[in-house]
Amino acid sequence: MDLQDKKVVLHDMSLRDGMHAKRHQISLEQMADIATGLDEAGMPLIEVTHGDGLGGASVNYGFPAHSDEEYLQAVVPRMKQAKISALLLPGIGTVDHLKMARDCGVSTIRVATHCTEADVSQQHIGLAAKLGLDTVGFLMMAHMATPEKLLEQARLMVDYGANCIYVTDSAGYMLPAEVSQKIGLLRAELPVALGFHGHHNLGLGIANSLAAIEAGATRIDGSVAGLGAGAGNTPLEVLCAVLSRMGADTGIDLYRIMDVAEDLVVPIMDQPIRVDRDALTLGYAGVYSSFLLFAKRAEAKYGVSARDILVELGRRGTVGGQEDMIEDLALTMAKQQGLK
Amino acid sequence: MDLQDKKVVLHDMSLRDGMHAKRHQISLEQMADIATGLDEAGMPLIEVTHGDGLGGASVNYGFPAHSDEEYLQAVVPRMKQAKISALLLPGIGTVDHLKMARDCGVSTIRVATHCTEADVSQQHIGLAAKLGLDTVGFLMMAHMATPEKLLEQARLMVDYGANCIYVTDSAGYMLPAEVSQKIGLLRAELPVALGFHGHHNLGLGIANSLAAIEAGATRIDGSVAGLGAGAGNTPLEVLCAVLSRMGADTGIDLYRIMDVAEDLVVPIMDQPIRVDRDALTLGYAGVYSSFLLFAKRAEAKYGVSARDILVELGRRGTVGGQEDMIEDLALTMAKQQGLK
What we know:
2 copies of one chain form a homodimer. The first copy, chain A, is of the alpha/beta class. The first copy, chain A, has 2 domains: 260 residues, TIM Barrel, CATH 3.20.20; 50 residues, Orthogonal Bundle (Helicase, Ruva Protein, domain 3). Chain A has 14 helices and 8 strands. An 8-stranded parallel β-barrel of chain A has the order 1-2-3-4-5-6-7-8, surrounded by 6 helices. Chain A is globular, with a radius of gyration of 19 Å. Chains A, B: Belongs to the 4-hydroxy-2-oxovalerate aldolase family. Chains A, B: It catalyses: (S)-4-hydroxy-2-oxopentanoate = acetaldehyde + pyruvate.
């Protein structure tokens, strides 16, 4: 793979996906310090939003220490070169949230949907594009759709106005060959920029990012020090080191971003970010993290291995919101295994 | 990459490379518990030796809680299916150590040298082969030799009697393409089994192992929970999950090895195994870990960045034992940079 002088735009998630790992309790000062450090290191794009996107503050998704507006107002004016992005999940974030983010100086809006539900993004992508924002369609749990289905969904987002489409490995399930195949098809068929967002559940965040770049993605997400839920995101300072070794052009000062990771991000972690048993299980099964608790409860009740339940849920393509099926599945498996 | 039904022999390093991370203070009970867990999970090969190999117990390399003989006697008789290996570095371990290991029931001897010094392995490889042991030549810091040089050195070890040759990425510096190239050349030219030993400094332990398997390696080293110095080794339970997803045949029960990692190995860690700043620096520069302290001292004295010093040492191919050159280099760099 020859990445010599290849331009790659890195996008930091530590202040958005990292909000999950911090149960949304990052202080304004921490947020501003980390963003400033990233800005000085040359990071071109930094996402600042509730972990579940604009408007996520709620009983369901967790109340953050500060509102999206407060975080954005604390960060945006301090940036010398970095642009700030906000994530928006239709159904959680609204057009008013989007306008608020624009008014705060956000330059990139990423509208995220499940990989087969791009049609719910029309209004928000349309508005973001109309407002002249860098508008990204973000297809989550992308391992759950075939390349052809992803392409169909990506086309919808492009038609709505997106100028960039992301393949998002929300579960940290994808293997490099799958990343290559999916990004490769989108690259061949779409006239817009492509991005890849990886999680590290199978220890493949770096390798998948390289596969994505090779297949034509030019934007790559990661988190400084990997800060994110579970196994975390692709660790961005490690990816920077690898890209530097390969001669790619990220515009980032490697030592500075290493120092942001070690001196600013690691010290605020509530626990080490690592591929622990739960994170590995979720990545292996390819399921929503919300399934884990239900599967463990079903294991306690029916004696069927929670891991077997999760793998079967992954095989069946069960999606978020279908958690009530988990107990039914566990009961069926228990009967098959002679446990009930 | 198609690994369906491909046989891969995994080799656990947690009780040898892991000795570094534990400053050689693993108790006999911990060692026996972890080895028993690995045996029950189906791990075919487990290395049990001082971190620096047989005879490592010393002021220089650290005194372990117990002797190699005590560790081996605590582990070998408990194994139901796993074979035990011992590492031997000529100059540290002797033929008497080798015979002791054989007498304790070790079935595999791995004779390790710097990648350009295979000629010092003749006596030990010859003896191990003569004793009928599975005899492995282990070429360390393999990123510091060209593929052709590695082949030449591997041929020496094969001529001495090795039935398996390892490409060992001691510094965690190699990128997948380099692994493919080096293993590929050895596979094309040598009549023996090949192995790969990876470290996780650049977050590429899993990806490099996959590249090695694709290029023809059939033995792959890793450590449960990554237990090893610095960023640790390729995390073995994560590699197992990935290989399982790809359909490879490792003979290992994935859930059991995940449980060994989480329930037995993580609890004995003195600190989390992660790609911290120092580990990333070493992997990026491709130098011996012993250089780190010298470079930091030189930074304090001459004002030249320790990281720049290490990268330059890597570029020059400086090897262990040349630590006295570090101060000279720092002084030269300080003059060039107008600091002195």
